[in-house]
Amino acid sequence: MLDDLDDEVKKNALIALYNLQGRGILDEIIADRKYCDFLKTEAQEIIDEYE
Q1: Cβ(21)–Cβ(50) under 8 Å?
Q2: For 35, which DSSP code?
Q3: Rg (Cα) of the chain, in Å, rounded?
Q4: What does the alpha-carbon distance between residue 23 and residue 29 come to, in Å, rounded to a whole number?
Q5: pLDDT in tens, 5-45
Q6: Cα separation of 42 and 29, whole Å?
Q7: Domain extents for the chain?
Q8: Is a pLDDT exceeding 90 seen at residue 51?
């Protein structure tokens, strides 16, 4: 779902992964070039808000 065309779907998938796996998945998404800037921004916002 992280590759979905709908940003809301991507965001919800990111939140679900964070809830299941913790901060590590956010760091991985931020570091990996295959993920879009939208996901990287959302991941950083989750870190800033919850970590």
Answers
A1: no
A2: S
A3: 10
A4: 10
A5: 999 999 999 999 999 999 999 999 999 999 999 999 999 99
A6: 10
A7: 7-50
A8: no
